[in-house]
Amino acid sequence: MIDRIKKKAEELLRTKQVDLIIGYKRAPDGVSVAPVFIDKAEETKELIWDTYCVYNLSNYLKDFRGRKIGIIAKACDARSIIVLLQENQLKRKDIFIIGVECSGIVDEKKLLSISPQTSELGFDERCRSCKPSKPPIYDVLIVQEGQRPQAPRLEKDPYGSVRKSEAKSISEKFKLWQEEFSRCIRCYACRQICPLCYCPRCVADQTQPSWLSRAHSFRGNFTWNVTRAMHLAGRCIDCGECERACPVGIPLRDINKKIEKDVKELFNYEAGLSAEQKALLSCFDKNDPEDFIR
Amino acid sequence: MQNIYQPYLAGIIDIRQETPDIKTFKLKFRDKEIEGSFNYRPGQFVEFSVFGEGEAPFCIASSPTRKGSIECSVKRMGKVSQALHELDVGDTVGIRGPYGNGFPVEDLKAKNLLFVAGGIGLAPLRSLINYCLDNRDDFKAVTIVNGARTSRDLVYKSEYREWEKAGDTKLHLTVDCREEDWTCMVGVVPRILEQLKPACRDSSAIVCGPPVMIRYTMPVLLKLGFCAPSIITTLEMKMKCGLGKCGRCSIGNLYVCKDGPVFSLEQLRAFQYEC
Amino acid sequence: MKIGVFVCHCGTNIAATVDVERVSQEAAKEPRVKFSTTYRYMCSDPGQNLIKEAVKKHHLDRIVIASCSPSLHEKTFRKCAEKAGVNPYLMEMANIREHCSWVHQDRVEATAKAIELIRLALAKVSRNKPLEYLYIPIEKKVLIIGGGIAGIQSAIDIAFANYPAVILEREPSIGGRMARFDKTFPTLDCAACILTPKMVTVSQSKHVTMHTYSEIEGVKGHVGDFTVTIRKKARSVDINKCTGCGACYNKCPVRVPSEFDMGLGKRTAIYIPFPQAVPNVPVIDRQNCLWFTKQKCGICKKICPFEAIDYDMQDEIIEEKFGAIIVASGFTQFNHAVYGEYGYGKYKDAITGLHFERMANSSGPTGGKIIRPSDGKEARDVVFIQCVGSRDEQKGLSYCSRLCCMYTAKHALLLKEHNKDAQAYVFYIDIRAAGKNYEEFVKKVQDEYGAVYLRGRVSRIFEKSGKLIVRGADTLSGAQIEIKADLVVLATGLVAQPDAPGLARMLHIPYDRNNLFTEAHPKLAPVETITSGVFLTGACQSPKDIPDTVATASAASVKALGLMVQDRLQREPLVAKVDAKTCSGCFACIQACSFTAIEEEEIEDKRLKKKRLIAKVLEGVCTGCGNCTAVCRMSAIDLEGFSNRQIMEEIEAL
Amino acid sequence: MTATEGSPERKRGKDKKDWEPRIVGFLCKWCSYAGADLAGTSRLQYPPNIRIVRVPCSGRVNPLFVLKCLVNGIDGVLVSGCHIGDCHYSEGNFYARRRFVILKRLLEYLGIDPRRFQMSWISASEGDKWARVVKELVEEIKQAGPNTEFRKGI
Amino acid sequence: MPSEKFFVKEDLYNKLEELSKEFEIIGPRELPNKGIFYQSLKNTRDLYLGEGFAIEPIKRFFLKPSEWIFDERFRENKNILEGIPLPADKRIIISVRPCETRGLTLLDKVFDSDYKDNFYINNRKRTIIIGLACNKPAKNCFCTSMGGSPIESRGMDVLIFDMDRGLIAEILTDRGRELFASIGEGLNEGQRRLLKEDKEKKKDLVEKKLSPPEGKELDKIFESDYWEDVSRPCIGCGICTYLCPTCHCFDLVDERRKRLRCYDSCSFPDFTLEASGVNPRPTKKERYRQRVFHKFDYFKKNFGENLCVGCGRCIRHCPVKIDIADIVDKVPGLKKE
Question: What is the ipTM of this complex?
C-alpha cells in the first residue's frame, strides 16, 4: 500500500499537480508517527502508512490556503475535508485527496497498558464506531491489500456508552464531569488539533466581550468545554483527535458523541457526508422537536 | 512583601483631546506619599489599569521636572485604551511603575539633540524635551522634527510656542500631504530630515514614531553621519507585566519592558531587530 | 462617560410600589453615573425638558430612563436624547413599571428590583455605541408582477401619484382572470364594463410601462434598489408597428381551442386572446402556426399592411431597476381531477365555474347561451356543487376559497336570467356570504330566482340517457337526493399559481404550505412581506374577491408609494455588522439569514497577504433579528444595539 | 466597566435560609417581552426573581449567553420567544429551537439540572402565561436549589 | 543527626499521616486511564511512589495556573483596591521528580530576582519538597544533558531513594531534618555503600542525549528556514508550555472585578498580538523559534543556564510528536564534534 502512496505522491509533486504533500513519516522515537510536509518529489520516500497514522491531517490544510495540496486522508479525515468544503474553507480544486482505506488506527496510550498476553490489538476506540473503511471523498483511492486486522466494531448501538451515561442521575453526571473538567489545563490542544476549529480568532481568545473566563477553574473550564462542544454540533465527524490530544485525559469524544447522537435522533442529521449539506444550526425543520418548550 | 502587580490609585485631574483619537490624561496619585516617592526618568512608562477592563502600558509624556502630576497620552486602540477614552475627570485609574530604562539622560548631556517624532511618538520625546528645556544649560542645541499625517494629528500643539521660544531650540513641523492654511513643511519625516540636514557632530538623535517612520529614518540619519550608538529610539511591543516576567516583550534576550523601551540603534542591530 | 439616570414616578404607577427616591439615590452611587433624579412624568414635556437641561448642565453623554416599557416610549426618549444633543442610541430604558411596580406589591422587593433593573440598563448603556441612521437611496420605479385586476389597480394608483410603474404579465394581454368573468357579484356589473376602462387607463398612462408576454427571470438587490431580469418572449409581432387592425388573425387559417374561452371556443394561430386585449397586438402561437411548424402559409406576414409580423423575433432579456415590487401574480383553479366522483373530464357536461362564466358571457363562445358542451343543447336543470377542493384536507385544500359561495349564487342567478325555464340546484356545506350585500344576494338568488339550495355533499355523478344523474344527500332533511341534470358546474377552489414557490424564492418571501405568499403580519402588515420593499396584493396571498383584491392593490400601492416619495430611506441602524478580521468566511450566517441580507465579499487579508471571502451585511436588507450573530461561532458578526458586548455586560451585571 | 457589589438581594443569597433564586430571562422584544408588558398592564402578580434581558428575537440568543449566566451563578435561565409561526422575523424562533434543544440536552448530560435552563413561547397576548411561567419557574428552581457549584475555586 | 535515613514505605505513610495534621500533603496520584496527577492527598496511602511522571509538574503549586492578584471594588463612588491575602498554610509536596524541582530553581531566578513576586515566593516558602530519585527514566528524558540527573537534589528539602527493600532519604535542609527527625534510622555501612552505588548507577541511566548549541551559535541561525520546517507540524496548542516545569509566561486580565494572573503561552498567536493588529510573532515559525531561543539562548545569556530541565514532558505530550530535543540537536550547521 505504502508503495502506491509514495508513487502517487511522487508523481503529484513531479508533475506539479500539487505544491506540497501532507502525509505521515516516522517520528524521531522510531515507533510512532509524525506529520510530514513534503515539497520535493524525491523526499516522498519518507512517507509511511501504518496503524500509527493517527493524525487527521486535514487540520493542516488551513495553513496552506491558496496552494495546491496533496493530502493523505483516511475515512474520518476525508469527512472533515467535506465539512471544510461545506464551510468554504477549502476549494476542491486546491486539494488532491489521496484516500487510504483504513481498518483502524491504534491508541498509543492504550498500547502502553496492554499486556502482551491478550489478543487486544490496541485499536483506538474511535475506530470501533467508524462505519466506512473507505473515504467518502477522494481523488485517488489506495485500497488495502490482503487481510488486515480490523478494529472490532461496536455491537449494534454506536451510542451505547452515551445512553449509559444519560441514564445516570443528575448529581452523578455532575460529579463525573466536574472531576473531568477540573483537570483541564486550558491548553486548547483540543481546539488546535481539531480540523474544524479554524476560526481566525476563537471566542475563547476574544476580550471584547470576554466570552469565557480565562481562569483555570471549574467555571472557566466548564464554559470552555461546553463552548467547544456546541461549536462542533452537527460538524464533528468523530475523528477523535481532540481526545487523543488532551494531555489530561478528558473524554471529549463522549461529549461529541452525545451531541452527535442527539443531532442524529432529533434532526436526522449527520456531519461530513456531503459538501452541499446546509450547516445544522443554519437551517431548521418546521417539525423540529419542541416538547422541551413551555 | 509588596505585591508587585498591584497598582496605586490615581485620579484623572485633566483630559486634553490632542487629536480625534488621542487624549492626554493628567493624573494625580490619590496617596500623597506615593506622589512624593514616584520618581521617574524621561522615557519610562507606567502600566495603566482601567478597572474591570485590564491593564496596558503607556509612556509618561510629562517631564519629571514638572512635579505634582504625571501625564500620559493615549491613542484609542485596544480594549484598555478604548475604556480609558471613556473616562472623565474625577475618575480613578491604577498606575504601576515607573518601568523601563528611560532615556540615557546623562549621556545626552552637553550634546546637540535631534528629536525626530511621528504622530503619538512625540509623547516620550515630550518628556525628554521638557526635561531638557527645564535643564537648558545641560544640553546644547535642540532640534525637533515633528511630523504627522495631517495637521489634525499633531499632538501637544499648545506647547509648540513654548518650545520655539526656548533658547537655541528649533521646531520643524511637517505633515504628510499638502493642506490648506498650512504654513509649515510638507512631506514625510525622513524626507524632511534629508532637506534639513541637521549636523551630526556632538549630536544624538532621539527617534520615536510609527515603525515605518523609524525604518525609513534610520538610514537617513546614518547617511547624515549619525553613528549607531548615538541614534536612540524607543520600541513598542505588547507588554503585560512591565517587570520582565510575563514573557511577551522579549526581543533577543532582553525584555522591552525591563531592559527597554529605549535602545540605541547599535543595540538593536545586535539582536537582529529589523528597523 | 457621564451617565444620567432619570427615574419616572409615572404618577403613582411606579411611585406607589417603588421608592423612586431611593432608587435614584442608589443609581447615583453606580460608577459613571454623574447625575440622577426623579420626576413625576418623564415622558411629559416638562419631563423631557428636565432631561435636556440635565444633559446640558452636567455634560451627560449617556442616558438611562427608568420608567415604562420601551415598547411604549423608546422612540419618545430616543428623540428626546437627540434633541438634548445625545446620540439617540446612547439611551437605554429600564422597565420599572410593567416589569416591576405593576407586578409586585412588596415595596422593599420592588424597590430592590428596580435598582437592579437600572443597574442592568446602566451596564448595557455603558457598552452602547453612538449609531447613525441608515439611509438607502430609492429607485423611483415600481414593478408590478401580474397584470390582473390587482396589478392594474396598483399601476393606476402609482401612476396617479406620478411615479412610474411597470406591469409584468406573462399572457399576451393584461386583464387576468377578471377579463373572463361575465358579471360580478353582488351588483351584477358586467366585468368587462368595469375592467376595460381600467385597462385602457393603464395603457394610456405615461407613467405605466407594460411588459406583456414576459416573464421574470431573476431578482437581485434590496429595497430601494432591486435589479430585475425580465424575459420578453418573442411575440412575432412588432408591438410598435402593429395598429391592431386585425387583418392577420382574420385571415389566419389555423383554428385551435381558445385558452381564454376555456376551450369552449376557437382561436387562430395568430391571435389576440380577447377583443378588448391590451395591448391590442396579436401574438403568434408558434406551436400551432403553420409557418413555424411547417414553414408554410406566411399569410399574416404577407397581409400585414404595417410589416409588423416578424417571424425571426427572439426572446429578449432585459434588466431593469426598481425601488419596490408589488406581487400581484394571482391564482389558478384547483385541479379537481382528484374528485373522480364528480366526473369532470369523463362527462363533457360537468364543467367548472370558469367555463360557466364564458358561456354566460354574451360575447363568449356560446353567445351567452348556457348549453351542454356535449350536444350544444340549452341546459335546463343545472346542478352546482360547491367546495370542490376547498375545505377538504383529505383530497383538496385546508382552506375556504371564499368566493365560491358567491360566484355559485351568481351563476344560479345568471342561469335563470339566460333561461327562464332553467332550474338551479346548489349543493353546499355552508354558505359563506360575509360581505357587503352578499348575504342579501344569496337570499335573492334563493327567493327570487328559485335556486334550490341543498346542504350536503354529492356522492356520485353518472350518466344515464344523456343526463347526468347527481346523487347526494340533503343533510337538512336527511333525504337522499337524485337530480337528473343537464349540466353540472363545479365550484372549484382557488389555488396558488404552480410556479409561485419559484417566484417566492426569487423575491425571498416566504410562502405557506399551500404555496400562498405569506404576509409580514397577518393583521398589522397584511400587504407587506418580510422582505422590505416587496408587497402583496390579490389572490397570490390568499383567495380574494374583486373588492378585496382592489383594496389590497391600493394598499400595496400606498406602501410602495410610501417608499417612492422619500428621497432616501431612513432606517434604524440596528443591523448586523461583520468584523472582517474575525470572519472565517464559513457563511453559516448567509445560510441562516431569512432575508438574504448577507452576501460574500472579497477582501485583502493583510495578515495572510491573500484575498479571501468574508461575509458582508447589506444594511438596507438587514432587519436586525440577530440570528446570524448566534450562529456565528467566532462571533465575527454582531448586532448593533443588541451587541454581544452589551448583552454580556448585562449578564455580568446581574 | 466597573461593576458594583451585589444588591441587598444578592447578599441575601449567601444565607442559605433566605435564599431566593435569581433568574434571567432572554425575551424577544416582539412577543415575550410584550407579553410580560401585558402582565404588567393587567397587574398580574408574580415573584420578583426574574430579570429580563431584552433581545430582538429568540434567534439572537447565543448559547454562550446562557452558559455565561449559569457559570456566573444565576440559578435559572429562560429563553422566551414568539410561538412558532409568529416570529416577527418569520424564522428566528425555529433556529433558536434547534440550537437550544442541543444545548439543553448537553447541559443535562453534563449534570446541570434541566430546570436551570428552560424555554418558552409566550405571545404578546399571553400576559397570564408569562406570569404563570415565572411563578412555575421560581418554584422549580427553588426546588433545584442554589446554583453554587460554579462559585467554587477561582 | 545523620543526613541520611533508612525506613520502609509503611513508615513513610504513617509519618505522612501524622504530618497531614499540620501540613497539606500533596503528592502524585494515579488516576486510572488518565495518568498521574499531583493532588492534595486526603488519604496519604493514595500517594504514588512508582515510576513515571505526573502529567503536570509541581510548577502549578508555585506559579498557579490562575490566581487572583487583587480585588477591585467600587463603593460609594470610590474605587478601592484590596490585596488578596496570601495563603499561610504549610504544605509538603512529596514524591517529586528531581527535574521538576530543578525547574523551580530556574523559576526562582525569574520570580525571586529584581522584582520579587510575592505570590510565588510565599508559595515557595510555605512548601517543603520531598523528592524521589528516578529508578527508571522515561525514553524522552534528557535531564543529564540539561545539567540535571535522576538524583539531582537542587531545590529539595529531602530526596528519597527507592531501594527495593526500603527507602533512603537524603536530608538536605533544616526543614527536611526537622520533618524527618522521628522517622527511620541512620544508615549502616552496607546501606551507605548501596546508596553510593545506586547514585553512581543512576547517573548514567538516562539514554537520550543532546548537546544544545551555545547561545552565540544559535544566534547565527535566527533567520534560518529551519524554524519554519520544524514548526510546520506544530498545532499551536499550549501543552508544551503549560506542562513545562520552567515555562512561566503569564497574562494579567480583569475578571469579575478582580485581576487574574493566568498561564499564557508563546505558542498562542494572541500572546504577542498588539492592539493595533500588529503581531511581531505572526506565524508558527516565529513562535516556535521563540520557545527554543528562550530556553536555549536568551535564558542562558541572562542566567547562565538553559531554561529546560530535560523532563521530556513536551515531547511526551505533544499531540504531533514534536521533539524539542531532536530539533535542538539537529540545528543545522552547528554540529559539534
Answer: 0.93
Residue whose C-alpha is closest to residue E252's, from C651, D44, B246: B246
Q: Pairing relation of β-strands B92-99 and B45-50? A: antiparallel
| Chain B contact probe: residue of C3, C30, C32, C125 with most B CBs at under 10 A | C32
Q: How far is C166 from chain E (nearest CA, A)?
A: 51
Query: In this complex, do C29 and E77 lie within 8 Å of one another by their Cβ atoms?
Result: yes
Rounded mean pLDDT, C377-402: 92
Q: Give yes or no: residues C61 and C109 share one domain.
A: yes
- Asked if residue C201 is part of any domain, the answer here is yes
Determine the straight-line distance between the first and last CA of chain D, rounded to whole angstroms: 21
CA atoms within 13 A of residue A132's CA, in its CB half-sphere: 18
Domain containing D107: what range?
A: 25-142
Provide the 8-state DSSP code for A281: G
Decide if E232 and A63 are in contact by the 8 Å CB cutoff. yes
Q: What's the DSSP call for residue C101? A: I
CB contacts, 8 Å: C629 with chain D: 60, 62
Whether E76 has its CB under 8 Å from any CB of chain C: the answer is yes
Encode pLDDT of E284-307 as tens digits: 999 999 999 999 989 998 999 999
∠ Cα E203 E209 E211 (to 5°): 115
User: pLDDT by residue (tens digit) across C440-478?
Assistant: 999 999 999 999 999 998 998 999 888 999 999 889 888
Could you give the CA distance from residue B153 to residue B148 in angstroms, rounded to a whole number?
A: 6
Last residue of a domain, one of C570, C589, C608: C570
Give the closest-approach CA distance of C127 to chain A in angstroms. 10
Residue C308: which domain range?
A: 235-313
Q: pLDDT tens digit string along D108-142?
A: 999 999 999 999 999 888 999 999 999 999 999 99
* Closest to D127 measured CA to CA, from D38, D50, D48: D38
Write the DSSP assignment of E115-155 as a string of letters: SB-HHHHHHHHTEEEEEE--SS--TT--GGGGT--TT--TT
The gap from C-alpha E25 to its chain's centroid, in whole angstroms, comes to 18
Under 8 Å between Cβ of A96 and A70:
yes
The answer to whether E260 touches A214, Cβ cutoff 8 Å, is: yes
Q: For chain E, say whether D3 makes contact (Cβ under 8 Å).
A: yes
Note whether A116 contacts C: Cβ–Cβ < 8 A.
no
> pLDDT per residue over C152-180, tens digit each?
999 999 999 999 999 999 999 999 999 99
Question: The domain at B105-234 falls in which architecture?
Answer: 3-Layer(aba) Sandwich (3.40)
Of C108, C126, C144, the position where a domain reaches its end is: C126
- Cα–Cα dist D72/C424, whole Å: 76
Which residues in chain B have their CB less than 8 angstroms from residue C32's CB? 88, 91
Q: CA of B83: how far to CAs of A165, C1, C449, in Å?
A: 46, 9, 84
Decide if E61 contacts E87 (C-beta within 8 A).
Answer: no
Residue C141: half-sphere exposure toward Cβ, Cα within 13 Å: 16
Q: Is A208 on the interface with B (CB under 8 A)?
A: yes
Write the CATH number for D115.
3.40.50
- Determine whether the interchain pair E260/D154 forms a contact, defined as Cβ–Cβ distance below 8 Å: yes
Fold of the B8-99 domain: Elongation Factor Tu (Ef-tu); domain 3 (2.40.30)
Contact E132, E160 (CB under 8 A): yes
Q: From CA E11, how far away is CA D5, in angstroms rounded?
A: 51
- Rounded CA-CA distance C47/C53 in Å is 10
Q: Report how many Cβ contacts below 8 Å link chain B to chain C.
A: 8
Whether E280 has its CB under 8 Å from any CB of chain C: the answer is no
Q: How far is D114 from chain A, CA to nearest CA, in Å?
A: 9
CB A100 within 8 A of CB A3: no
Rounded Cα distance, C230 and C218, in Å: 7
Are C299 and C322 members of one domain? no
